[in-house]
Amino acid sequence: MNKIEQLKYHYTQILHLLGEDAEREGLLKTPERVAKAMQTLTRGYEMDPVEVLCSAKFEEPYNQMVLVKDIPFYSLCEHHMLPFYGHAHVAYIPNGYITGLSKIARVVDIFSHRLQVQERLTMQIRDAIEEALHPLGVMVVLEAQHMCMQMRGIEKEGSVTTTSQFSGAFNQAKTREEFLQLIKR
Question: Which of 36, 58, 95, 116 has the smallest number of Cβ neighbours within 10 A?
């Protein structure tokens, strides 16, 4: 039995446990649709972010900040498997090598398409860029809304969680402040 079939079986069981009739017309294809959706939402497990960054790694003497901001992302909270979503702002200061700009967004995509917590997601993005490029510094800021806080539990709609991770040159307040000024809306 392949992954989709296995997931489909378990989602059918979940529908039964919830008190639903998995055989009624509106739910007949739901287990398969959910199984396929989960495969898409967790596709990041099958990709190597460092490999992606290195696939477009170029020698370049540029040594000022490279910032890709407002990268949209969608993830699933590992505690409730409910979505959280927002924007990532990622900067690095090259140390002889740069990468394709789309690769930065792809790294965000890879890690966000795994079961996550925002804090770990922030660190993983930073760590992958450090490992692949060995830059002078990396800074990552994520701003996200969590459906586990909005739909259940505390039910606080519109609250935004911000996390940050930085290394190297971003340990200097002046460099960090430049980054923060650049991402202000």
Answer: 58
